[in-house]
Write a structure and sequence with these properties.
Structural class: alpha+beta
Radius of gyration: 18 Å
Number of strands: 12
Order of helices and strands: EHHEEEEHEHEEEEEE
Largest sheet: 5 strands, mixed
């Protein structure tokens, strides 16, 4: 299996995936287009809400068993909101090594990434019990206990991306 990253219009990721199925069904049969979302806990006006947001805004993961050929590229260019492959349409390379491990980690969790269960040790360091942060503790660059979010850094396509993931502190339940 090979994985490629496509850049599409921000906020139109799901629409792009739907358009691939509708406007280019032969592509949808040959390749799997994945739009990952994450569930965040957000406080608005004193109320706690759960909101779905893109995991990687403006990026779609293309999972395939074949190389990207000229037919695939031409068909994608005809679909509204498609910009390009990472790094470019002239140098299309699949994800490799660490990039691939991180993407596969998130893909293994399903299309909707939920909360992680964590606790904090005596030195106030985060300890992940289960969830999407499990196994990528080394990528955590900041923890906001009040908002219950961990900011992680993910590198793919030669670019560093930061994102917030929600967590639930199980030590607060005691």
């Amino acid at each position: 299996m090979q994985y490629y990253i496509l850049q599409v219009a921000t906020g139109r990721e799901q629409i792009f995936v739907d358009n691939v199925k509708k406007l280019a069904p032969q592509l949808a049969q040959k390749h799997n287009f994945i739009y990952l979302t994450r569930e965040l806990t957000i406080r608005r006006q004193g109320k706690i809400l759960r909101e779905l947001q893109p995991m990687f805004p403006s990026y779609i993961i293309m999972q395939t068993t074949s190389e990207v050929d000229s037919f695939t590229l031409a068909a994608l260019k005809k679909i509204p909101d498609f910009y390009h492959f990472l790094n470019s349409n002239t140098d299309i390379v699949p994800l490799g090594d660490r990039d691939l491990q991180i993407i596969q980690h998130f893909l293994g969790l399903g299309p909707k990434i939920g909360q992680s269960l964590v606790r904090f040790d005596e030195n106030d360091r985060i300890v992940v019990i289960e969830g999407p942060l499990k196994g990528i503790e080394g990528s955590i660059i900041k923890v906001d206990k009040r908002k219950q979010r961990a900011k992680i850094r993910v590198d793919f396509g030669g670019t560093a991306h930061t994102m917030d993931l929600s967590f639930e502190d199980i030590s607060k339940k005691d």
